[in-house]
Amino acid sequence: MIVVDVNVVAYLLIGGAYTPLARRTFQKDPRWAAPLLWRSEFRSILSVYLRRKTLQLADAFQLMGLAEQLFRGAEYQVDSEQVLSLAHSSSCSAYDCEYVVLARTLHGHLVTPDEQVLKAFPTTAMSLQVFGEGHRT
């Protein structure tokens, strides 16, 4: 099981520059986990597409449903003190730190395209490119 940030989910389900890597990541390990926060973040991404009129409301409903299925049984509440401590000691947002805390709690890796998170947490975070291609730097 890997923890993935919401951007990986968006690449997998909506599409974008990293969609092939997101698909390879899913093929390599289809058991994805995320903090409960992912739901709000994904809804926010979908709402941007709705405002731009590049996504229809019915499609947004369908994508949200697919994402919810993807994380069924693998959504977690994380410890607030740990999140705030990491946010305080790094340049990352509390949102980003929720994913890091979860990965550490599950004794796994966070897969993310976020360069700031990768730099701040090199032993926990792994780039989408590295995981999707199958090697660790």
Tell me the count of domains: 1
Question: Beta fraction of the residues?
Answer: 5-15%
**Mean pLDDT value:** 95
DSSP summary, beta strand count: 5
Describe this structure in words.
By secondary structure, the chain is of the alpha/beta class. It has a single domain, classed as 5'-nuclease (Rossmann fold, 3-Layer(aba) Sandwich). Helices cover 58% and strands 11% of the residues. The chain has 8 helices and 5 strands; from the N terminus they run E-H-H-E-H-H-E-H-H-E-H-E-H. The protein has helices at 6-13, 19-28, 38-51, 57-70, 80-89, 94-105, 115-120, 128-133; strands at 2-4, 32-35, 75-76, 110-112, 125-127. Strands 3-2-1-4-5 form a 5-stranded parallel β-sheet. Helix 1 packs across helix 2 and helix 1 (6-13) packs across helix 3 (38-51). It is globular.
Element layout with pairings:
Layout: E1 2-4, H1 6-13, H2 19-28, E2 32-35, H3 38-51, H4 57-70, E3 75-76, H5 80-89, H6 94-105, E4 110-112, H7 115-120, E5 125-127, H8 128-133
Parallel strand pairs: 1-2, 1-4, 2-3, 4-5
Helix pairs in contact: 1-2, 1-3, 3-4, 5-6
Produce a short descriptive summary.
The protein is an alpha/beta fold and 137 residues long. The protein contains eight helices and five strands; from the N terminus they run E-H-H-E-H-H-E-H-H-E-H-E-H.
Name some characteristics of this structure.
5 strands, Rossmann fold, 58% helix, alpha/beta, single chain, 137 residues, 8 helices
